[in-house]
């Protein structure tokens, strides 16, 4: 089989996944949640409430971004603005990630506030990063390039993750003369620096191609164009049906990613075991993300999205009965098979459906649907955990979201690239 060749622009775009995925694993999934749980419980917050508060924080951050996403995307559709918005959010995210290390000991609330800022920076930059997909590659390569980006992200994130785990484990065993809390803070600094350094190729080599020419009054024009899109919603019916399906199934995906370590901690799984499991998950997820892209070329994107949704339904069921470290290992490997693939193909599928010159505006909607879903999922988990006294019921309740998402996805026609 002929090896796919990628342009410098495609490689630079994909490399941003390498850069920012360190945030996903260290801040969103692994080190920060465990560090926060330690700080919160040390300050007298119960295990269940500390998990709920983290869920509420994720909900607040994503709600803020969901509110501003579409209008920011609409403004960024004007020529020359997409990269400026991308840079602003990337800078906010990377610098605030480093600042997590300087929160005073025992201050769990300020920790959550700064975490909110890092999340806004991370997800805000991703609006414009995802929208750049239409500028860097043709439609027939979008599934492959998007999946390859996620694969690189999983591979790249393992490097700072290994370094961070090593520092934390060595500190815990007294091999190096620092506490595990200080070691965790070093991990935050490493993440911010890694994110900043490896974003440089994206900043240097990726440019906005599809755009709308600037008007004298950009802000007023942006609101007008956003209003026109709502008025012409029937014209974009396919796009919005997909977004509705995406709203439901990505809710469960994002909630499981952001809350997995807190959930494992509630079940009594040791922090070191959680970190090792998450590292292996990253390694396993990399080839599977790429595999999803390859299989989508053979069986269609929708078919592979259905596979991912089905796997996550199994994850929700299995999580309800999870009780041992071995169970958590099995659960993590199930997630690893589909986590990157379902996100990568959702991104490329959407990019093939939207008008290229309005990609930022529509990826703003992509963000608002995804982020509103991320508000609902953590809130559902948090409220259910507090009402029942068990996080397991919250995870299990996510199953309905995957089922609804799968049903709605059946109503979305294939993109043009799959019908020619």
From TrEMBL:
Family annotation (InterPro entries): Atg22-like, ATG22/LtaA_families, MFS_dom, MFS_trans_sf
CDD domains: MFS_YxiO_like (cd17482)
UniProt-listed Gene3D superfamilies: MFS general substrate transporter like domains
GO MF assignments: transmembrane transporter activity
Boundaries of every Major facilitator superfamily (MFS) profile domain copy: 1-418
Membrane topology: Multi-pass membrane protein
Gene Ontology cellular component list: plasma membrane
Protein localization: Cell membrane
Keyword Nucleotide-binding applies: no
TM segment ranges: 21-39, 51-73, 85-103, 109-129, 150-172, 178-198, 239-262, 274-292, 304-322, 328-350, 362-381, 393-412
Protein's name in the database: Putative MFS-type transporter YxiO
The species this protein was found in: Sporosarcina luteola
